[in-house]
Amino acid sequence: MTSFYPAAKLPDSERQNMAVQALAGGVPVSQLALQHGVSRKFVYRQKNMASAALDEVFQSSAPDDEVLFELPVTKIWLRQLTLGLSLICHNSYRSVVELMRDLLGVRISEGTVHNVHQAAARQAGAINRGIDLSPLRVGLHDEIFQGSQPVLAGVDARSTYCYLLPPPNIAMPIPGAFICSTLPSRV
Fold first, then answer.
1. Which of 7, 9, 61, 73 has the smallest C-beta neighbourhood within 10 Å, fewest atoms?
2. Residue 146 CB coordination number (10 Å)
3. pLDDT for 55-68, tens place per residue?
4. Domain end: 129, 148, 168, which one?
């Protein structure tokens, strides 16, 4: 039985070539349809079949339970994970404890998570105190809050470097009040 449709008469090699051209995007679909005497719908169907075939070929053949890589877990890595879960993933201390217990079999307490955060804050503070802010010319200062405690923070207007300011000796009676100043100029 012969078909009246031009698409049915196209050899497989021509269909494949048309699908590759459509996937590459170098020739518009309407032009490919015109060249081969077929509808745009047919060209899109061939393009989708070729795309699905490519996806299948490049899909991972590894079974879901195959080990993809091994990770050396050290105490330092566990501390980094604890900080990452809290600071990057915004997990609570309790969530960090649950994840460590349920997925890794590591038992830690919320107090341990807190201590890891405090140690990291002390280390960051030591690094921050060693930074010379004298080259900065214009600082944009404002008040942020750590819990309920106001903290003065600044951003260098030119480089967008962020820094903390020492607490002022004056009380700020209005929550949200900010200090706007320029950094001292070099002599």
1. 61
2. 10
3. 888 887 767 788 88
4. 129
